[in-house]
Amino acid sequence: MKADYVDSDIALMFDQLARARRSTRGFLPRPVEQGIIEQIFETAAWAPSNCNTQPWQSHVVSGAMRDRLSRIFMETIGTGKHTLDFPYEAKYDGIYRRRQVDVGLLLYRALGVTREDRDGKRRAFLRNLEFFDAPHVVFILMPDWCGIREACDVGMYAQNLMLAMRARGVASCPQTILGYDAESVRRELNIDANMKLLFGISFGYEDNNLPENRIVPDRAAIDELVHFHS
Ligand SMILES: Cc1cc2nc3c(=O)[nH]c(=O)nc-3n(C[C@H](O)[C@H](O)[C@H](O)COP(=O)(O)O)c2cc1C
């Protein structure tokens, strides 16, 4: 069906916005203004969800608490002494493994880390726990009654968040690894035990001088991903 009306300016802007969002792995220390952060979270809340249940909860962490959590993660996630609410058991195969390897190589090449450089790889991993120097991190949780369908709702919310950030010049990095020490996050932020941690998103202003921020992981061609039926 042909759309009666297409606002081509909005379409163009949205396409540019969606393509301009990147996982950023190096931030400036400059904090994002509180008013801008609030706008971002207000817009993100317009994500769709099953029966409009809006099962997401965000905990935005900055300042001394941000530093404290980073230190804790270094002692827990950095050494394997952590607890995950949702196990990460992805054993990628075939084309999925290929894509995983490709993006890893892209990142390591930008960082100057070679295949044998174990220390370099470890250092790259630990940057996650420093939130890549971002001044803010948001932890995304959902109640324990949620299943995979509600987790999809939360994913849509998270993408809204990152696009609302990008539209305001705020960069982000979604990080599964920030969901690895759920107990510490709940304890430090005083979060109820029935709220389960999915992941975190570091955010702030991008450091444009870093080579790791210039990588552009490619995407599969549309005919590999989309099947049209009639
Ligand atoms: C839910 C989720 C978790 C992710 N976890 C991590 C992570 O722990 N560390 C990291 O550096 N990147 C992480 N990424 C970023 C992906 O590597 C990235 O999205 C992918 O390579 C595509 O690159 P782009 O986001 O720049 O388009 C994660 C992405 C998503 C969606």
Topology:
Layout: H1 8-20, H2 34-44, E1 57-62, H3 63-76, H4 94-111, H5 118-129, E2 136-143, H6 148-167, E3 171-175, H7 182-189, E4 195-204, H8 222-225
Antiparallel strand pairs: 1-2, 2-4, 3-4
Give a description of the structure.
It is a single chain. The protein has about 230 residues and is α+β, with helices and mostly antiparallel strands. The protein has one domain: NADH Oxidase (3-Layer(aba) Sandwich), CATH 3.40.109. Helix content is about 45%, strand content about 15%. It is built from 8 helices and 4 strands; from the N terminus they run ααβαααβαβαβα. Strands 1-2-4-3 form a 4-stranded antiparallel β-sheet, sandwiched between helices. α2 packs across α6. The longest helix has 20 residues. The chain is globular, with a radius of gyration of 19 Å. The protein starts with 7 loop residues before the first helix and ends in a 5-residue tail after the last helix. The model has no long low-confidence stretch (mean pLDDT about 95).
